[in-house]
Write a structure and sequence with these properties.
The protein is of the alpha+beta class. It has one domain. It is about 45% helix and about 15% strand. Helix 1 runs antiparallel to helix 3.
Length: about 160
């Protein structure tokens, strides 16, 4: 078996990445109006991904007419993307005047105001649709790779 990544590995990593992105968006939407006991608001998060292989490394390999794939530290061929972590969104919070609310600020420039979440539900829904379409594209790529493998097996049997 070859050390080169297969189309299956690459499509599967993309599907996994988009699933994580959709889960993070769902969490953001579910907690958009969550206010903690200390009065602070939930801050939305974004999933951060990185390529399993560096683009520069792939280009160097192409320039040198070498099609060998450099192995990762764990000995596996790099394929697709990998989850790098979650990044908290740095949006500035909005404030709503509600002096009767027990969570309203009692002093400072925002006295009488309640902090609101910076999560924009419209932007989150756009991200959700985008991630869903990217997931569907990865499924299509996986199905195309499967079809090509099936047809290659049929050709070998002739």
């Amino acid at each position: 078996m070859s050390d080169t990544p297969s189309a299956f590995d690459i499509a599967a990593s993309g599907m996994s990445a988009q699933r994580v992105a959709m889960d993070v968006i769902a969490e953001n939407l579910a907690n958009a109006n969550l206010q903690r006991a200390d009065g602070s608001q939930f801050r939305g998060r974004s999933a951060v991904f990185e390529p399993s292989a560096s683009f520069a490394g792939a280009m160097d390999a192409a320039d040198n007419a070498s099609f060998d794939i450099t192995l990762d530290d764990d000995g596996a061929a790099p394929a697709g993307v990998r989850f790098a972590g979650l990044m908290e969104q740095a949006d500035q919070p909005a404030y709503r005047l509600d002096p009767g609310n027990p969570l309203a600020a009692t002093s400072g420039p925002h006295k009488g105001y309640v902090e609101e979440s910076g999560v924009d539900p419209i932007a989150q829904m756009i991200g959700l649709v985008t991630a869903g379409r990217a997931y569907d594209a990865d499924v299509s790529a996986l199905q195309a790779a499967k079809q090509m493998d099936t047809e290659a097996i049929d050709i070998e049997q002739l």
